Amino acid sequence: MKNEDLKGHLENIAKLFFDGVEGYEGAAKKVEGVEFKNLFEKLSAERKRMLSEVNTEIVSLGGTAINVGDTNGTLFGQMHLFWLNLKSNLSFDKNEALLGEIETGEKYVLDKLEDLLENKAEMAPTTVKVL
Q: Are 32 and 88 in contact (CB under 8 A)?
């Protein structure tokens, strides 16, 4: 895989991680119960760490890091966040609605990572480790 192609894929992953940061922060504000709030805050921090690691790989390939505030994320992420907010506002069980939508988002990200890792033989070991 050419560096330019890999850089583009990593930038897309970084934007998905940014979406995750936004989603978890939003969920932490809406969820009922301290345990869930703490969980979503922890997951948001974890996603920020993951974003930082992917950004390190992007910069090593000559790209520009995707930072919170520099992007609106992905269209999927924006639509997903809208749906998450709508569903949690209309649902009788806000926690269940939030967890269901978060599970959908996580599956999407995991699928994208797995798709990219199908080409791991063409990537540096550090990139594979980060992914």
A: no
Band of pLDDT at residue 80, cut at 50, 70 and 90: low
Tell which residue, 75, 55, 56, 77, has the closest CA to residue 66.
55
pLDDT of residue 2: 85
Torsion of CA 36, 37, 43, 49, to 10 degrees: -160
CA end-to-end span of the chain: 15
pTM for the full predicted model: 0.80
Asked if residue 95 lies in contact with residue 36, where contact means CB atoms within 8 angstroms, the answer is: yes
Question: Residues for the chain: how many in total?
Answer: 131
